[in-house]
Amino acid sequence: MKFDTPTPRRTTPGRRTVLKASAALLAAGMLAPISSVLAQMTLRRTQDQILGPFYPIMSKPNRSGDLTRVPGGSERAKGELLIVRGRVIDPHGRPVAGADVEIWQANSAGRYAHPDDTNPAPLDPNFEGFGAVTTGADGRYQFKTIKPLHYPAAPGMIRPAHIHFDVRGKRDELISQMYFEGDPYISKDRFLQSVLNPEALTVKLSPSREDPDFMVAEFDIVFRG
Ligand SMILES: [Fe+2]
User: Fold this and answer.
1) How far, in Å, is the centroid of ligand 1 from the Cα of 52?
2) Cβ partners under 8 Å of residue 127, min gap 6
3) Which of 42, 131, 204, 216 is the most buried (most CB within 10 A)?
């Protein structure tokens, strides 16, 4: 009778074996409690990006959380509707309550409502593009806005679509930019490509379950709080 050659057993210990060994070591006081190990793990701070020339110095941010409408306006801003949301957390993953999250961006034609923007693309009277919200106890923030368009920043230089962030806590301030996966201008953008991990500043959009008119961008912020 011929037998098949048995499949070689793996030489690395299985998950159950590791858990049993860890439990034994923990019981013997040879391993730190898992909670203290987790407490020592730290998340990488969200990567900084330049403030850029179009920070809206001339106006105050809209604090309604909905940039698709302006106060007193009757129409919605032009463009692809977008919910930008996420958590503001510290390097240990704890929510940062009371952080001020500010965003500003170009409109759906690639134009900022800023006097120094020389892009001939039209302004949208129903879009200011400058908002702020404060995180709650869970560290969460959310904006309704529109997806900005890429724009010419200098001769031969197009900036990919992005949303600027300025996040202020009690001890830290983070200035960065959020980009969109699949944008054809991402790979040549010297600002995004200057960071160690460009993918970490790039979001993938998914349809909103709550409101089918919106796509959702999830963008968590890590800073010292
Ligand atoms: Fe910009």
Assistant:
1) 6
2) 67, 68, 70, 77, 78, 79, 107, 108, 113, 146
3) 131
